[in-house]
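Dear Dr. H.,

I hope your travels went smoothly. While you were away I took the liberty of generating a structure for the chain from your last submission, since the lab meeting agenda had it listed for discussion. I wanted you to have the full record in hand beforehand rather than looking at slides cold. The sequence, exactly as received, is reproduced here:
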Amino acid sequence: MAHVHTSVNEMSTRYYQNERRHNYATPKSFLEQISLFKNLLKKKQNEVSQKKEHLVNGIQKLETTASQVGDLKARLASQEAELHLRNHDAEGLITKIGLQTEKVSREKAIADAEERKVTAIQTEVSQKQRECEADLLKAEPALVAATAALNTLNRVNLTELKAFPNPPNAVTNVTAAVMVLLAPRGRVPKDRSWKAAKVFMGKVDDFLQALINYDKEHIPENCLKVVNEQYLKDPEFNPNLIRTKSFAAAGLCAWVINIIKFYEVYCDVEPKRQALAQANLELAAATEKLEAIRKKLGDLDRNLSRLTASFEKATAKKVRCQEEVNQTNKTIELANRLVKELEAKKIRWGQSIKSFEAQEKTLCGDVLLMAAFVSYVGSFTKQYRQELVDCKWVPFLQRKVSIPITEGLDLIAMLTDDATIATWNNEGLPNDRMSTENATILTHCERWPLMIDPQQQGIKWIKNKYGTDLKVTHLGQKGFLHAIETALVFGEVILIENLEETIDPVLDPLLGRNTIKRGKYIRIGDKECEFNKNFRLILHTKLANPHYKPELQAQTTLLNFTVTEDGLEAQLLAEVVSIERPDLEKLKLVLTKHQNDFKIELKYLEDDLLLRLSAAEGSFLDDTKLVESLEMTKATVAEIEHKVIEAKENERKINEARECYRPVAARASLLYFVINDLRKINPIYQFSLKSFNMLFHKAIAQADKVEDMQGRISVLMESITYAVFLYTSQALFEKDKLTFLSQMAFQILLRKKEIDPLELDFLLRFTVEHRYLSPVDFLTTQSWSAIKAVALMEEFRGIDRDVEGSAKQWRKWVESECPEKEKLPQEWKKKSLIQKLIILRAMRPDRMTYALRNFVEEKLGTKYVERTRLDLVKAFEESSPATPVFFILSPGVDALKDIEILGKRLGFTIDSGKFHNVSLGQGQETVAEMALEKASKGGHWVILQNVHLVAKWLGTLEKLLERFSQGSHRDYRVFMSAESAPTPNEHIIPQGLLENSIKITNEPPTGMLANLHAALYNFDQDTLEVCSKEQEFKSILFSLCYFHACVAGRLRFGPQGWSRSYPFNPGDLTICANVLYNYLEANPNVPWEDLRYLFGEIMYGGHITDDWDRKLCRVYLEEFMNPSLIEDELMLAPGFAAPPNLDYSGYHQYIEDMLPPESPALYGLHPNAEIEFLTVMSSTLFRTLLEMQPRNALSSEELGQSTEDKVKNILDDILEKLPEEFNMAEIMQKNSNRSPYVLVCFQECERMNILLREMRASLQQLDLGLKGELTLSPDVEAQQSALSYDIVPDTWSKLAYPSTYGLAQWFNDLLLRCRELDTWTQDLALPAVVWLSGFFNPQSFLTAIMQTMARKNAWPLDKMCLTVDVTKKTKEDYGHPPREGAYLHGLLMEGARWDTESGTIVEARLKELTSVMPVIFAKAIPIDRQETEHTYECPVYKTKMRGPNYVWTFRLKSKEKTAKWVLAGVALLLEA
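The corresponding predicted structure, in token form, is as follows:
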């Protein structure tokens, strides 16, 4: 793990050097790697053991199946024997049951007959009983009446009756009747008199009781007869009559009457009752007989039921036996089928188990790699990822620590499976390896993923993947914190998009997962939010190369979603095929989807099968469903495998057809990366993949239709290349167009293998390490040194000898006007174009821009080098409400005018209210916002000028443009303009704003012809006729136009043109024309002096800050504006006289006819000025091209040294040669004299010490950094980069003297300066000839000359000046210093040369850019003695960059007019 961490640190350093991308591996990253390793290992171990267990179970089940078949056959035999027995038992029982059933039937018939009898008797008894009961009911009232009568009697009234002495007859009759009825045993008493009655009644109670208990059912017949005959027939025997006599007698009377009545009825009922009793007896006997029969029948029934139950049991056993036999048969059949079906699977599973067992052994190593991969590689690009895994980690595990790992391990396959990847691809993830890796890391990382996604491909996939479940927000959006808090609580996935390089500190606890309260809460701002375990945060940035601080990188997993060349190629291939062959692409998509589905289904089926097998308890052979499912699975698998083979065959055919279009996709992908790299030249050149895609489609649609396949491919490639060229060119400044063209050509040719990468690398770097004096006079030392460097290459061996040997032929070629078009001498003419470029760069670097243009023309075609005019109409057609037009401004160009003209043509003007012009600046933001809103609704145009002035509002502007473009009016358009930032660090315009726009550069014309025409275009015929002094006005106006063309055109000659750059623009010219008109109208004569002052000091001079430039401007006006302009013929330039009086078109025609071809002479410069300017331009171009090359292509190990090794060699070389610091204490003791010269020496030594100290310290620091003992700080990284590019590091140049040299030459120069100082410090005596160029501060030495002479001659210093006398001698001719002043050497003249013979300045020789000055004798004199006649005040500069490097002014003798040298930019330089 530690090795992984350190190797990532090393790789990050290289990544930064090569790609300028920052990646940090912090201790936190290391701890996260450990935690991820533990979690992954646990998860993978469980996964592997579970899979293995399933397979082992499966195989065990299969093995038991075969062995069970024999047992099953034995079981089948015993089951069949048992079945036979059961059949026999069941048949015996059937016979018994038959007999028993017959018996029961017989008994049942008898019982039924008896039952019928009993029923008849029961019916009869019931009838009789009913009759008896009816008769008895009739007797009931009499009995009731008798009882009621008795109830009337009681002891009292009976005693009263008894007490009657002699009752009436009626009463005695009653008593007599009672006595008859109560006569014992029916013996009727003879004496029934009252007396006898009284005795009979005896005891009243007993009498009453006898009445009550009277046996009313058995009255003797004789008693009944007596009562009936003797008493009842008596009419007086009536209770109602007797009641009058006696109450008791009446009761007795009623009793007798009713008792007799009852008895009579009872006598009728009695026979019936007896018959009823008899019938009841018969019924009882019959019932008893029936019960006996029933009991017997019940016994028989029970017996029958028992037999039936036994039969049913036997039958069930028999059926079960039969089923068991069937089941066993079926099981044997299934088992045979199963063994047969799964034999192949068993072998495969066996292999899988072995592989799982092997995996268990290598799991630790594999997971170690996986954890490292997920933790660390996210921010790297493809090649760095591969190198880390294959060249750093895997070998380390295998060789150094011997942790076993799977052979040929594919980390992605370990972390995810085809089915998941297929799902991702269906969700819109690009299907290249890098994207798959990113998606895998994103789904497995434990730290929050932070996607670097400039082309928006990652975010598109994320939004599709999570769909509506994804919450999207961005920092600073209204309520974004609330959205995050809600997502935290509910465990949602939240995406924070479009992050900048810094992140709101309020999110720190969330990013670092700093939970509180036992991990349940997270603090966001001042709120404590519940932390749901399902919460997931995804961060996203559109920035192409963001620099996130180490602490943020430690909290997140950086994922580089930047599109890769092969990834883009795959996408574009799909696009081009879908346009060209939609049938193929459709089929391919369907196939891919099917194959993805097959993978998913196969995996599901296999898992399901294993799950069923492992879940099957005991013997699963009875599980028909399982076996059938296995069979179905096998059938499905077979079908799928067949389909897969079919699909693969189809895929092969489709791929063959698609491959034809690969060159088109490859070219387009290559071009995208070429234009994407243009941001390295200038960050304003930013192009989105979206707009590139649209361009790609358009180019395909516009390509000519060709039937022949190869022809069509060529046409498509050409169409795309040219479309990209046109689209990109309109966005580039003129100076960058050739860079782009060359880069495009080089990359196309490298891809076609038409040029050797090593030769290209040499051409771009052109490292010249040693200086050789030229043996031939037509080559400078620099060119000869370059030839010697070229001669070291195999292809160019011997070129130095050839040039020396055939000097005449080579001179002719070198000195020709356009050597790039001439053939090379001798055998060298057979060299390839790139080899010719190398030779040309060595000998004529000034012609390289033309040579590259020719190279492109020859390799790509003429149309690529033709000048393209800005077509605003075309750009407007390509724009839309969502695609604004963005003008990249140049000084002196107004984009508004072109848009206004176009708007007028299409009806969008300020007057109609459809055109809103907002010039941005302080407080204009609100105005712009209102204009945009109004325009988006109404379909108007808005131009936002100078958006670079509102840096803070640009982010808002980007969001506003996006918002207003949605659902806006279709005519709504936005135009923006901004200046390009002077340096990349000052670039402020947001990436989104630039990427979504059509960029157009608007530059002033180049060249005198174009400039002069353009200057005249600011006026028209009316302007020419407006002034009363027409002749003067026209002449001066034309001269003014020429002046304007000169000052504007001169800028391109660099410091020799103007010491500093100025934004001269057409406004200066038009205002000067107005001033001219006013002054001519107001004055009778032409006020030349006033006009020159106004034009030179105020209008144009207002821009100028440098005194020498102001002088130049003044001289121009003196030359172009003087009376001879009107009175005489004035030559504006050699061969170009001021025109006569013409009309407007006449002037244009005059320019066309009379202006000489473009050359520096038109501006008053020497022809050499162009060489210098072209050489600088060419070296800048090559340096830019070098920086644009893919780092891996140029400085990888295959090409020899790696960058680190190269830097290490340079570093060691410098450290070895670096002189020791000067011992100031020791030097100061050498001489007590502190003369001005000695003080200058001390100061120079001290400055040199500071520089040497810094160089040594920084190189030692870099050395430690390269060894890995020290973390590289940005300064050290910048130093390393500088060393690799042969550039002087910034930290050194800040402490050093101004210089334009590359590192090698600069260091040699430094050593010479040290040697010079060393010589001087030996005795502190002034050297014979002082090397003025060797000073940090040359002014101090020149001042020292004046101070020394002022002291010596007692002259006032402020009344003195320095005078120079150019000698005819060289440094070697002097042995000691002069008595006064000093001899100086090391100066060079630029723009002219010094003629030693005549002792004056003369025209420079052609192609000799600088000429070495002889020794100059400098001394001080009083100002009034200074000689000013026939002298040129020549400025002295430290380097050819001039401007702030000004040192002094030397007056040099000249026979020519001063103006000539001023216009030619003649100056003395201390460094060539």
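Two observations you may find useful: The longest strand covers residues 1446-1453. The longest helix spans residues 247-376.

With kind regards,
E. W.
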